[in-house]
Amino acid sequence: MRPMIAEYDPKKKEVRNDLSDVMVKYKVDPIEIPVEQQAGSTLPLMEIPGRDVEADEDYDPFKHRKLAHPTSDMDTLIHLLKGSLGSGILAMPMAFLNAGLYFGLVATFLIGGICTYCVHVLVKTSHELCRRMQKPSLGFAETAEAAFLSGPPAMHKFSRLAKALVNSFLVIDLLGCCCVYIVFVSKNIKQVADFYAKDSEWFPHDMDVRIYMALLLPLLISMNLIRNLKYLAPFSMLANLLVGTGMGITFYYLFQDIPSVSERKPFAGFNHLPTFFGTAIFALEGIGVVMPLENNMKTPRHFIGCPGVLNTGMFFVVSLYAFTGFFGYLKYGDMTSGSITINLPEDEVLGQSVKLMIAVAIFFTYSLQFYVPMDIIWRNVRHWFGAKKNLAEYSIRIFIIIITLCIAIAIPNLGPFISLVGAVCLSFLGLIFPSIIEIVAFWDRPNGLGRFNWVLWKNLFLISFGILGFLTGSYVSIIEIIESKE
């Protein structure tokens, strides 16, 4: 059988299979990833000479992965826990405030289960597409592109759009998290500074939190001009140590003088559920780290097996988040803040130390979170800048940092901000996109959608659930942001 590369021709509005002027458009960069020279997909749909489509199913992508330093199951589990246990855990008590004590407990495990299942769908579909495309591994955006390229012919022309959409939402999500981090760090520092400034003659008392955000700008710029990830590794280790210590002290406070569960609402009401959904999915959804971890495993089949690395890791993550949310809301009730650290005593050195430790840890996490969207943006614009690439990259970094700071200053209300980021970005990344990718990838395959098309109906439910969460969560969060300004 003749080798073939399928490429969409935007001028003729059709998919082109001619090799004559397509093969020359692809080269391999230093990390052996096909890079597109002109219009068309970065993932050519290829068939190996002398083999038919059915024989391609025998291709095992795991045997073709060439990894310099593959990770073991335990290493991957640890990385998954580190990637999923972020600042969102500090917002879980606020999520329970908007859901109720018992309903929040049940709903947290339900949303955690749905998020975990959607990750399963994404990883399984990625494995299938690796076999079809005969590629050892695919990232999230590349999986979306490959699904549309290998799906129904009518979908081929949308492959680049699918990849661009996934990358765009990843960038918006991660930069949104960076904005949340700025608000979080500033609020915690302000609490400690206000306590010591009330009797000071030279330091202004009760200074606006926006001023603290502005004062962070030089530090943010200096940290995020570091372009090599290995130089950020020590800051990551320090951040993990600070978060672990800070959370340990936080739990110490949570278990002091715990009130009766009868003093808390079992269900907060339907009008608060959209805010709960946005906050919970912001905290629980770690889909951005899943594909890189799975692609670097020594035994990738163990990632989604039973019990599997994913199931084990997400069980611990969801349980810890539910535990923190339950006891945080039980302790502070209607006084629960957007971050549980803000509720800690202001007049105790131990409480103040937690606020500062978590603030420093989240500040360092900003740099790690910023690295991924900056990498995506730079890979798509670096060809515009000729010989002045270094100057251009530094300028873009500084510009994006300033943008995140301006957004944080414009929306200093931590709770609704977290809910808005979760509702807008993670509804799509965690629920809608994996479902669409599976539908397109298996649409025209024999029995690909299962008996009675149950795969289709299941994914339509998940898409509807994601859209409902996106619309209601965004609406309620925006209303709360507007009302807080008034």
Automatic annotation (TrEMBL):
Pfam families: Aa_trans (PF01490)
Membrane-protein topology: Multi-pass membrane protein
Membrane in keyword set: yes
GO cellular component annotations of the record: vacuolar membrane
InterPro entries: AA_transpt_TM (IPR013057)
MF-aspect GO terms: L-amino acid transmembrane transporter activity
Residues spanning the membrane: 102-123, 164-184, 209-226, 238-255, 275-293, 305-330, 350-373, 394-411, 417-443, 455-478
UniProt-recorded name of the protein: Proton-coupled amino acid transporter 4
Organism (species): Papilio machaon
